[in-house]
Fold this sequence. Notes:
Number of strands: 11
Mean pLDDT: 94
Shape: globular
Number of helices: 7
Structural class: alpha/beta
Strand content: 15-25%
Amino acid sequence: MSKAKKDFRVDSLGVKIYDSEASLALSTAAIVQQHLQQIFKKKQTATVLFATGNSQLQFLDALAKLNNIDWSRVICFHLDEYLGISENHPSSFRYYLQKRIEKPVSPQKFHYIEGDTLQPLQECDRYSKLLSVKEIDLCMLGIGANGHLAFNEPAVAEFNDAYKVILVKLDSVNHQQQVNQGHFPNLESVPKYAFTLTIPMICAAKKIICLAPGKGKAKIVKQLLEGKITAKFPASILRKQPQANLFLDAEAASLINSEQ
């Protein structure tokens, strides 16, 4: 496991900076492995929330290749899903996670948000009830181009949301990000609505690991660490979470205060 070249805190948020995304991914996978092994010493199963997106790719690949995780004791959930596309759609988050986690490692159970449901409000209720059964031991996150966590967009994010799962309208920045990252061919094809776990549901996780590698995340990371804590920049809530750690590579950290 590579050692972070910098390790510090901003408010309650731990920050680790690595030389490259490759070393970040390998180290984060090893940290997750060790954390799961500690959980298994205390209880039979671990409950894990998975994120999707380009920020997770190298990490999930490294995690799936590790041999010392008893995946038969891991129950999985995910953070969000588009409304109106099937699990076989190549841009579905179910498709992404089936390919990168469920098929390679065969966890005990993967509870998916059914994005193609005909009754989206009932789906919010169903998934909320599943999430209520067990505490979340570990949550993986990425950060969107507008500072969103999961699909908690700046226009709709609430730090004190009363719900666990909600249906939201995606904003134009998010739409463009999906096209820029190659998930959809054009803006017209990006779904207009999506399911998301809320900010309080995410923050209820006992451990949070947020990955934000790459030069494209540098401005977002600077705002996260040096800006105000506000629902208008949803990821800023992480600075109030002592159980959270932000993992960066040198490019993502290139704009933050060098005195950190």
